[in-house]
Specification:
The complex is a heterodimer.
Chain A: E1 3-6, E2 10-12, E3 18-25, E4 33-39, E5 46-52, E6 58-60, E7 68-73, E8 78-83, E9 92-100, E10 104-108, E11 112-116
Parallel strand pairs in A: 2-11
Antiparallel strand pairs in A: 1-3, 3-8, 4-5, 4-9, 5-6, 7-8, 9-10, 9-11
Chain B: E1 4-7, E2 10-13, E3 19-25, E4 34-39, E5 46-50, E6 54-55, E7 63-68, E8 71-76, E9 85-91, E10 98-99, E11 103-107
Parallel strand pairs in B: 2-11
Antiparallel strand pairs in B: 1-3, 3-8, 4-5, 4-9, 5-6, 7-8, 9-10, 9-11
Classes of the chains: A mainly beta, B mainly beta.
Chain lengths: 118, 108
C-alpha cells in the first residue's frame, strides 16, 4: 500500500531555511511522483510542487518558484523539500504525498509542523 | 489557474442522512482529473475518489463521485459517525494543481 514518514517539527526565525524529509516505504519509489502540500492553520490545502522520482523533473507552483527546492534520493527512498527566506505566513503543516496522474494523491505523510517566529 | 468552488461551506446533518457536496471549476478539467479528499482534525487528507468517480482503495461504497467538465459531486449515501469531517476537491491535471475551499460536514 505504501507509507510516507516525515521529519519532525521545526521552529525557525524569519529569513531562515527549513528542509523537510519524506521517507517512502512498502512501494516502488521510482514508479510515482512526490508532491508537497502545505496547510496553514484553519486553511485548506495548498499545492506547492511536484517531483518525478524517476527523472528528477520538478514542477513548482509559481508562488514558491523562487524559494523552494524539491528533490529525491533514490538510494534512501527519501524526498526532500527545502524552503528559504521563511516568513511568518509560512507557518503551516507541510505534507508530502505520493502522486500519479491517474490516481491522485493516494498516500500521505503524517505532516511536519513548521513554525516561523521571531 | 483553475479555481474550484465548493458548496455549501458547512452542512449540519445527522447520522444516516444522505449528503451531496458540490465542486465547481472555473474551467473544464481535462480528463476529469478531479479528486475528493476527507480530512479530520490533526490528520492528513485521505483520498476518497479519483478521476471524478473512481473509489480509492479501501473506501466504503457509500462514497460515490460523479460529474464531468466543470461540475462535480461527492455523495455519501448514508452518513456514518466517522464521516463527520472536512471534504476537499482537487484538480490534478493543470498546473498549478488546486484545491477547493472545503465543505465541513458537522453533526447536527
Amino acid at each position: 500500500q505504501g507509507q510516507l514518514e516525515q521529519s519532525g517539527p521545526a521552529v525557525k526565525k524569519p529569513g531562515a531555511s527549513v528542509k523537510v524529509s519524506c521517507k517512502a516505504s512498502n512501494y516502488t519509489f521510482r514508479v510515482y511522483g512526490i508532491s508537497w502540500v502545505r496547510q496553514a492553520p484553519g486553511q485548506g490545502p495548498e499545492w506547492m510542487g511536484w517531483t518525478s522520482v524517476n527523472s528528477g523533473e520538478t514542477n513548482y507552483a509559481q508562488k514558491f518558484q523562487d524559494r523552494v527546492t524539491m528533490n529525491v534520493d533514490t538510494l534512501t527512498n527519501t524526498a526532500y523539500m527545502e524552503m528559504r527566506s521563511l516568513r511568518s505566513d509560512d507557518t503551516a503543516v507541510y505534507f508530502c504525498a505520493r502522486s500519479s496522474l491517474p490516481d491522485g494523491f493516494d498516500v500521505w505523510g503524517q505532516g511536519t509542523v513548521v513554525i516561523v517566529s521571531s | 489557474e483553475i479555481v474550484l468552488t465548493q458548496s455549501p461551506g458547512t452542512l449540519s446533518l445527522s447520522p444516516g442522512e444522505r449528503v451531496t457536496l458540490s465542486c465547481r471549476a472555473s474551467q473544464s478539467i481535462h480528463g476529469d482529473y478531479l479528486a475528493w479528499y476527507q480530512q479530520k482534525p490533526g490528520q492528513a487528507p485521505r483520498l476518497l475518489i479519483f478521476r471524478a468517480s473512481s473509489r480509492a482503495t479501501g473506501i466504503p461504497d457509500r462514497f460515490s463521485g460523479s460529474g464531468s467538465g466543470t461540475d462535480f459531486t461527492l455523495t455519501i449515501s448514508k452518513l456514518e459517525p466517522e464521516d463527520f469531517a472536512v471534504y476537499y476537491c482537487q484538480q490534478y491535471i493543470t498546473s498549478p494543481l488546486t484545491f477547493g475551499g472545503g465543505t465541513k460536514v458537522e453533526i447536527k
